[in-house]
Specification:
Layout: H1 13-49, H2 62-88, H3 94-130, E1 136-139, E2 144-147, H4 148-164, H5 166-180, H6 189-210, H7 212-231, H8 237-273
Antiparallel strand pairs: 1-2
Helix pairs in contact: 1-2, 1-3, 3-4, 3-6, 3-7, 3-8, 4-8, 5-8, 7-8
């Protein structure tokens, strides 16, 4: 008994070409939607990146910041694309979506930036107590000149936050913002204004609390200087006050700066994890 060979016909070149053409057509039809979704995602992510500490420093060239924003957008696109695409079919024009996303991104980045200014506030207070308030350097992040210790503590706070992984929470806040502020919906301006005022007060309170050791030192030093002037009027205390204040003040700062930066990183972590509250 003979068995006839069984075989199936392979697809012809014409059928393969039709399948490839259908795939290319589907890709081309999908391309405008993907491009618009990427643009909308880039508007919010790029606006946040341009204001976050460390990423927005003037020492970082604008081209590098743009590349970082594009890289973050590429990395987040696969996870956030389902949240962005429905807004394209909602009937809202693309320019309005772009403007809304840029405004939300700027607001989120500004909130983080305001709280981060607590490190600069603590440095300015420390410089005032030590006697280095007149030693000014250019601080691009503050938009002008700032005391030397303010700039030093600000840079040290950036290094500590990056080393402690706080920047991961900054990036995670971008993901969380799409649940709080969906694409296509304009957030309440009054709520953002109230949040900005609240965060400004928290930053000021945090800066003063971080500089508490230097404030206490300044009070005790000036009290001792006044008592010395009253007890021994013939001694020119003001001639020895400045170098002594600088020596003792820098010693106190050297002993407390580690605790200051650790407390600042912990406060920033609590702020990001508790929904922008300290």
């Amino acid at each position: 008994m003979r068995w006839a060979p069984s075989w199936t016909a392979s697809p012809t070149p014409s059928s393969r070409a039709e399948g490839v053409d259908a795939l290319d057509l589907a890709t081309l039809l999908r391309l405008p939607i993907d491009t618009a979704a990427f643009l909308i995602l880039f508007c919010r992510v790029g606006a946040v990146i341009m204001l976050l500490p460390a990423f927005s420093e003037d020492a970082v060239p604008p081209q590098i910041r743009l590349i970082m924003a594009l890289g973050f957008t590429f990395g987040m696109y696969g996870m956030l694309e389902p949240r962005v695409t429905p807004a394209l079919h909602s009937g809202i024009s693309l320019p309005l979506l772009v403007i809304g996303e840029v405004m939300v991104g700027l607001a989120i980045g500004m909130v983080v930036r305001i709280l981060f200014s607590a490190a600069a506030i603590a440095g300015a207070i420390a410089a005032q107590q030590v006697g280095l308030s007149s030693a000014l350097v250019v601080d691009p992040s503050m938009g002008g000149q700032a005391p030397l210790l303010s700039r030093l503590i600000g840079l040290a706070a950036v290094v500590v936050c990056m080393g402690a992984g706080v920047h991961h929470l900054w990036i995670a806040s971008i993901f969380g913002s799409y649940a709080t502020f969906p694409v296509g919906g304009m957030p309440n301006a009054a709520d953002f204004a109230h949040l900005a005022v609240s965060v400004t007060g928290q930053a000021l309170a945090l800066g003063v609390s971080l500089a508490a050791p230097l404030i206490l030192y300044g009070m005790l030093f000036n009290l001792g200087l006044g008592l010395a002037a009253r007890v021994a009027p013939s001694i020119q205390v003001f001639f020895i006050a400045q170098p002594l204040n600088l020596l003792l003040g820098m010693s106190v700062l050297a002993m407390s700066i580690g605790a200051m930066l650790t407390a600042f990183a912990a406060a920033m972590t609590t702020f990001m994890q508790s929904g922008w509250k300290l």
